[in-house]
Amino acid sequence: MKWLIFILVVVISMNTQAFESVKLKDTIRQGYGDIDLFVAHIADKNPTAEALEWFRQDNSGSLVFAIDVNEAASGSEKAQSQGVTIKYAYLTIRTPNGTNVYSTFSTPTSTVVAPKSDTQRAQYYTVIGDSGSSRITGSKDSDIYGSSFDGTLSIVVPDSLSDAVSAILTVEFLQTNIELGDPEAFYDYGAGYEDVALLSSQDKEYLEQLAAGLDEAPLVIANNSEVTSPDSWVYYPSNSSYFVVSYEDSYPNKGDYDFNDLIVGYQVGFGMLNNEVVSINATGYMIARGASYTHDWYLHIPFASSVSGSATISMFKPGSQTPIFGYPQSKTFSDSVDLLIFEDSKSLMSVPGYEFVNTLPDVPIIKGNKFSVVVNLDSPVPANEMPSAPYDPYLYTEVTGHEVHLPGNVARLAFSANSGSIDTQFKDTQGYPYALVFPDDWLPPIEYVDLGQAYSKFLSYSRGDGTSDASWYLSPNTESTKDIGKSIWMW
User: Fold this and answer.
1) Which residues of 405-428 are buried (b: 16+ CB within 10 A; e: fewer)?
2) What's residue 1's pLDDT?
3) In whole angstroms, what is the distance from residue 487 CA to residue 37 CA?
4) Which tens digit of pLDDT belongs to each residue from 431-470?
């Protein structure tokens, strides 16, 4: 009887033995890793098959791993927030009876990004973290105690691992299309390496509650949220070209009518699923600023019905994927997609010693800021309710307090001087508009040169019914225009 009790005690002790989280020797390098689960960073802690089975049961039928994110390289990544996107992850378990592969994985967060050399975004799981350390967990024996491990990765394992003779975790990060800006530039991966640890449920819960870096990461989708990913994208004017909108900011006065007070290039993409719009992205550049005034520039996408959702706005320093201070910004909207993109144009684009930028004849051209916007709609919108291009890009002039829109639109800002105005033409008494959209190879007039002088056919077009000399913008007077060149501003 005593021997039976002793045997029972030994069996119970083995079944209830607790293992601590252990850092593994292998790492993820250059976005890829084959991690041997039987080889720890410290040899004395090498896991056994018994340990793997304990971790599996402790995590309710999954093996859970911590990843030390080490990717602060581009986009809006920084020490306080950095992330990677997982292309795939799976476990290869070999036993005396054969080999099994388990590939059902998840993380607490996901995002919507486009792979490298692609513009179509889809949903991928992410791991987000920071460069902090000294994670104070419940046990000092745990390898994540005092560490810098960040996010978690779980793989469902429905079978016992007690007889495993080999166990390999394979992870590959997604190469994202960083040319789109954020969120792609944030969730790319660099040349760093990521440590990996095998987690107990206690440490899993600790890291997931900590949520390191989550607050400052762009376009985070919680694992318990629902998101509809598009299966195709439609771009306007195309996925490789841009609208160029140019303004005369003296509305309702004519001003000098050199029509270069602010020039912006922009492109809009609609993510489609089952002939409905489920998401939107937009990209653009500040091209020139030929004004003494400063402005705010808005992009309004006027759907036929009310829409709501959330947007992530990223803004990058000229010629780089480095965000300017204060970005990315997260916005929610209801009723309409109407977003402030460029705030205070004069502070965003300036050249020391000059009042104007990229509109003077003998002054070198500089690159402007780039923006990227990702919009998730709360509910799909039927394709027949999509707005017509080029939408409603509009200007708010700080000094005059007036909005300037393309003809056919109404003032939208409650605080503007023309709020509630019935004017939808935004033309003066002679029929001259204050905002026009052009192809992306359009050349703006140089400073103080009237648009009619820079483009002689413009006068007959503006004074007519809109059909005469409709292609006036294709015939510039080269001595009166500034050849900025889209090869420069479309960086």
Assistant:
1) bbeebbbbbeebebeeeeeeebbb
2) 47
3) 50
4) 899 999 999 999 999 999 999 999 999 988 887 766 788 8
CA distance 153 to 72: 20
Task: Find the distance separating the first CA and the last CA of the chain, reported in whole Å.
Answer: 82
Q: How many residues does the chain have?
A: 491
Unique residue bearing structure tokens 């026009």 = 436
Residues contacting residue 136 through CB under 8 Å, at least 6 positions apart:
145, 146
Report whether 337 contacts 391 (CB < 8 A). no
> pTM for the complete prediction?
0.66
Q: What CA–CA distances, in Å, run from 7 to 1, 10, 11, 54, 298?
A: 10, 5, 6, 20, 75
What 88-91 contacts at long range (C-beta under 8 Å, 24+ apart), as own/partner pairs, is 88/170, 88/171, 88/172, 89/153, 89/155, 89/169, 89/170, 89/171, 89/172, 90/155, 90/169, 90/170, 91/63, 91/155, 91/157, 91/167, 91/168, 91/169, 91/170
pLDDT in tens, 255-289: 999 999 999 999 999 989 898 999 998 999 999 99
Q: What is the C-alpha separation between 158 and 343, in angstroms, rounded?
A: 53
Residue 33: both structure tokens together:
């890793």
- CA dist 323 and 19 (Å) reads 43
Sheet holding 62-67, edge to edge: 22-23, 196-198, 62-67, 151-156, 105-106
Report DSSP letters for 442-461, one per residue. --PBPTT--HHHHSTTHHHH
Dump strand ranges (E) for 208-328.
221-222, 232-236, 243-247, 262-273, 276-288, 295-301, 309-316
Map residue 50 onto helix, strand or coil.
helix
Q: Alpha-carbon Rg of the chain, whole angstroms?
A: 29
**DSSP label at 5?**
H
Contact status, residue 149 vs residue 197, Cβ threshold 8 Å? yes
Average pLDDT, the chain: 90
Alpha helices in 82-181 (DSSP H): none
Distance CA 256, CA 250 (A): 8
pLDDT value at position 292? 93
Q: CB neighbours (10 Å) of residue 22?
A: 22
pLDDT computed for residue 184 by the predictor: 87
CA dist., res. 298 & res. 460, Å (int): 30
Distance CA 33, CA 173 (A): 9
